[in-house]
Design brief:
Arc Repressor Mutant, subunit A, two-stranded antiparallel ribbon, 10 helices
Length: 178
């Protein structure tokens, strides 16, 4: 999975969770998935539609009722679901899991397996704003998923960021070829 696909995938709050649940064997009907995620109906529906648009899930032909369809993973979705399950499993704590549902958390962690400067992160995440990147980095620092160090070996010191602890586990679960 490349970084652009990861950014698109994580742009809806419940996408990773839905994929992980389908990978775990939860029935592909809306009611069991909704109950397992504990998401609101609107956010859940938006995430489900988003996954269909990304062609990671599809309606299971010949199964379900038109008003209560059944969904299944596409071949591309099977790979994404395995990654999503590993990411979700890396953060079993419900209070910290909320951070995974934020749009930029997983893409930032995916890039910071090795130390990166702010400008390098921004250039790799082309659509992110300075404010969103800065805010996300501060949140990840606060929960000790990212470590900020100052590089002083050059004339103009600059901060570098790298994933640590749970952040590194999420980074390894994503396994981006960088």
């Amino acid at each position: 999975m490349d970084i652009n696909t990861l950014v698109k995938l994580t742009s809806r709050a419940w996408s990773l969770n839905i994929l992980a649940l389908l990978h775990s064997g939860i029935p592909g009907r809306q009611a069991p998935l909704l109950a397992a995620t504990s998401a609101g109906r609107t956010a859940f529906s938006a995430s489900l539609d988003h996954l269909i648009q990304l062609k990671l899930i599809e309606r299971n032909p010949g199964h379900g009722h038109p008003l209560r369809p059944e969904f299944r993973l596409t071949p591309a979705g099977v790979d994404a679901a395995a990654i999503a399950k590993a990411i979700v499993a890396a953060v079993p704590d419900d209070s910290k899991f909320k951070l995974l549902r934020k749009t930029w958390t997983v893409p930032i962690l995916a890039l910071t397996g090795t130390p990166h400067r702010f400008s390098m992160l921004k250039s790799n995440l082309m659509t992110i704003t300075d404010r969103a990147l800065s805010s996300s980095l501060h949140e990840l620092e606060d929960v000790d998923w990212i470590k900020r160090e100052i590089e002083t070996s050059v004339r103009m010191p600059f901060p570098i960021y790298r994933a640590v602890s749970t952040g590194l586990t999420v980074n390894q679960a994503v396994g981006l070829p960088l």
